[in-house]
Write a structure and sequence with these properties.
Layout: H1 9-33, E1 37-46, E2 51-60, E3 67-75, E4 80-82, E5 90-91, E6 96-97, E7 102-110, E8 115-123, E9 130-138, E10 159-164, E11 169-174, E12 185-194, E13 205-206, E14 211-216, E15 221-225, E16 233-239, E17 271-272, E18 277-280, E19 288-294, E20 300-306, E21 315-320, E22 326-331, E23 335-342, E24 351-354, E25 357-358, E26 376-381, E27 385-391, E28 399-405, E29 408-414, E30 419-425, E31 431-436, E32 441-446, H2 467-483, E33 485-487
Parallel strand pairs: 10-17
Antiparallel strand pairs: 1-2, 2-7, 3-6, 3-8, 4-5, 4-7, 8-9, 10-11, 11-15, 12-13, 12-14, 12-16, 16-18, 19-20, 20-23, 21-22, 21-24, 24-25, 26-27, 26-33, 27-30, 28-29, 28-31, 31-32
Length: 500
């Protein structure tokens, strides 16, 4: 048997290795259990200065002990400060982080910085509870931070706009509130039109004065407003001053195209917002008006007018009468037509239409004018007969006359400019009735025969009258015979006594 003698150095080596391994294990696990700080950062760009602004957050690992940040080492080496409300910022170094709390500090670094770090040596107790920690932030994924421009070139500027066509208003604003560089000015114009339809149609004519204004210098926004016609209209918000306004817009003429803000192409697409154009309205941009006048002959004269502030387009009137009568008349803007006459046979219901709709006055019916000359009635009587004569003036309508005496009625129609006579056998009645039903008139004619018939009404002859009285009566009778009697009173349903 071979006996091996152990060297006293070997157990010591094994024991030393074991102790070294134990210390290594403690050193690796110490960060998880020892006092420490956690350091994180976020980055932002200050375009006014072109610097990156790092916001560092330092958290205390201990919930029952405050940490004093004894030493702070930033990289890049710029100030790291803590904001204090109502006071100037204080350095992060020397700041106390409360139990389980955190503190934020700000550091400004150059805009082209690609990475940054913050190393902090912290103390928890004077007996040596301390730790040094480092936080880093990688900035390579961010775009470089450069100072923002202080103005924008005229040809690169962009805008935003609002547009309310039915109200005739718009606004335009320069993006980012940056002024235009130098003396550059950008004009914008709002314009309204008279339009023939409530949708796009031509021709169109500018209404009122377009509103035009510019953005430039310190002016970064404008407001525009135009009056709208009280009829069909188009409103356009365009890029440029009033020299760009098209008046009139015609079928084969120029168009605004992409000059209108909100268009898909340049320059209109350099302003962001709704479509800068509008079509609408509820009535035609013309001024159709009518005037009906009844004539004594039963016709109706119709005056057609297209005159007024809205008259921009010709109007086609259609005049309709009773029994299917109609006539179409076109009246140009600013003109009138007085040649249309509805025949008497069709004048019971007259109306005027534009675009298929009855215009202002609706349906009109002929009414006898008050100034029309009325028929006259004359009488002639003797002891045997009583004659009534009805005369109808020229220029009027035929008149129906009903003449009644002694229980007998005769009806006659008297043509315009004509005369009708009816002779009755004299009787005891001392008056006759003449009715004109077309005119709603009635009158009384007195039977007063010439000479002495022996009593009124054609009775027995009376004794002759002599002396002075007889002379007076004879003279009066002679005057009656010489003059006759033209009898008529223009009053409705008045009973009037006529004597011959």
């Amino acid at each position: 048997m071979i006996r091996t003698r152990l060297s006293p150095r070997r157990p010591l080596a094994v024991l030393g290795a074991a102790l070294l391994g134990l210390v290594g294990a403690v050193a690796v696990s110490a960060p998880a259990s020892a006092h420490h700080t956690t350091i994180k950062a976020t980055s932002a760009c200050d375009q006014l200065t072109g610097e990156r602004v790092l916001t560092w957050t330092v958290e205390n690992s201990e919930r029952d002990k405050a940490a004093t940040l004894q030493q702070v080492t930033p990289n890049p080496k710029t100030d790291v400060t803590v904001a204090v409300e109502g006071a100037s910022p204080v350095p992060l170094e020397g700041t106390v982080v409360p139990d389980g709390g955190s503190v934020q500090a700000v550091q400004r670094v150059p805009g082209d910085t690609r990475s940054a770090s913050l190393t902090i040596y912290a103390l928890w107790k004077a007996n040596g509870q301390e730790h040094t920690d480092t936080g880093t932030v990688d900035l390579t994924g961010d775009r470089s931070c450069a100072p923002a421009p202080k103005c924008v070139d005229l040809d690169k500027a962009t805008y935003s706009h609002t547009f309310d066509g039915p109200k005739g208003t718009a606004t335009v604003k320069l993006d980012d509130d940056l002024p235009l560089c130098g003396d550059g000015k950008q004009w914008f114009t709002l314009v309204s039109y008279f339009a023939p339809r409530p949708r796009f149609a031509t021709p169109q004519y500018v209404h009122g004065t377009p509103d035009s204004d510019w953005i430039g210098g310190t002016r970064t926004s404008i407001e525009l407003k135009v009056d709208l016609p009280d009829c069909n209209t188009q409103v356009d918000l365009i890029w440029g001053d009033t020299s760009q306004v098209i008046d009139p817009l015609t079928e084969d003429g120029k168009r605004y195209g992409n000059l209108k803000l909100g268009s898909p192409g340049a320059p209109g697409n350099r302003s962001h917002g709704p479509q800068g154009w509008y079509n609408g309205g509820s009535r035609t941009c013309a001024n159709p008006a009518t005037l009906f006048t009844s004539k004594c002959d039963g016709t109706v004269a119709v005056a057609l007018s297209n005159d007024g502030s809205l008259s921009r387009y010709a109007v086609e009137f259609e005049v309709r009468g009773a029994n299917g009568w109609s006539k179409k008349v076109t009246v140009e803007p600013g003109k009138a037509n007085t040649d249309t006459v509805v025949p008497a046979a069709n004048a019971g219901a007259v109306e005027v239409l534009v675009d298929g709709k009855v215009v202002d006055k609706g349906t009109y019916s002929w009414q006898r004018p008050k100034d029309c000359a009325l028929p006259t009635v004359a009488t002639k009587a003797n002891c045997d007969t009583f004659t009534l004569t009805v005369t109808n003036p020229k220029g009027g309508l035929p008149v129906k006359a009903e003449l009644t005496y002694g229980g007998r009625t005769e009806t006659r129609t008297v043509a315009p400019g004509g005369t009708e006579k009816v002779t009755f056998q004299a009787g005891k009645d001392d008056q006759a009735t003449v009715a004109l039903p077309d005119l709603d008139l009635e009158m009384q004619a007195v039977y007063a025969p010439e000479g002495n018939c022996g009593g009124s009404g054609g009775g027995e002859p009376a004794l002759p009258v002599t002396g002075a009285a007889a002379g007076v009566m004879a003279a009066a009778a002679g005057a009656l015979v010489a003059a006759g009697a033209v009898l008529f009173v223009v009053t409705r349903r008045r009973r009037i006594r006529f004597t011959a």
